[in-house]
Amino acid sequence: GENVEQHPSTLSVQEGDSAVIKCTYSDSASNYFPWYKQELGKGPQLIIDIRSNVGEKKDQRIAVTLNKTAKHFSLHITETQPEDSAVYFCAASMRTGFQKLVFGTGTRLLVSP
Amino acid sequence: DSGVTQTPKHLITATGQRVTLRCSPRSGDLSVYWYQQSLDQGLQFLIQYYNGEERAKGNILERFSAQQFPDLHSELNLSSLELGDSALYFCASSVGRDRPTYEQYFGPGTRLTVT
Lengths: 113, 115
Fold this sequence. Notes:
The structure holds two protein chains of two kinds.
Chain A lengths: L3 E4 L2 E5 L4 E7 L6 E7 L6 E7 L4 E4 L2 E6 L4 E6 L8 E7 L9 E2 L3 E6 L1
Parallel strand pairs in A: 2-11
Antiparallel strand pairs in A: 1-3, 3-8, 4-5, 4-9, 6-7, 7-8, 9-10, 9-11
Chain B lengths: L4 E3 L2 E4 L5 E6 L4 E10 L3 E9 L2 E5 L6 E5 L5 E5 L8 E10 L8 E2 L3 E5 L1
Parallel strand pairs in B: 2-11
Antiparallel strand pairs in B: 1-3, 3-8, 4-5, 4-9, 5-6, 7-8, 9-10, 9-11
């Protein structure tokens, strides 16, 4: 089955810096890679996703890149703000609408003012 | 707000008891997923229903069961509870009736504490 590894487990940056979180997956059949942000006491919130036919996707300060050959994908947050502090999860699945998400172990991001 | 609702928000119960967690998917979504989040296991898929039918099973214990009703809400039943069942339980929904979306949107979760 699919296995997703995520690094780092914790990341501390200064406000305004960039943050990068990396994930690798094992199943070459996976073709859908979402990223979720989870704030304390809340459910995971979908912030961006990428399909395997796309190498990069941007949404304002957030971008995701995918390297299918190497089976890894990354989340990039630019101009970080204190409200970006949360736990971020990557996930992988086959994009059919009927497939479970396999999650990474999470990255706790702390943005200091 | 994702549009997915879960009740109750918190549950405290004793070992050996049975509880029911409820989930209402986003309006129009046909598929419901249940996930368990614990400190040592992370976010783990339990089970999925689509339009009332079970579609996939993950790491769900035999003591746990679920169903999806005609109005598309879902319930997760946990029985013979053990201390290790203490966790956050999330419901997610996807696949709208009129939109081919695959994104899963999560509810706020139910925190289960077994004492």
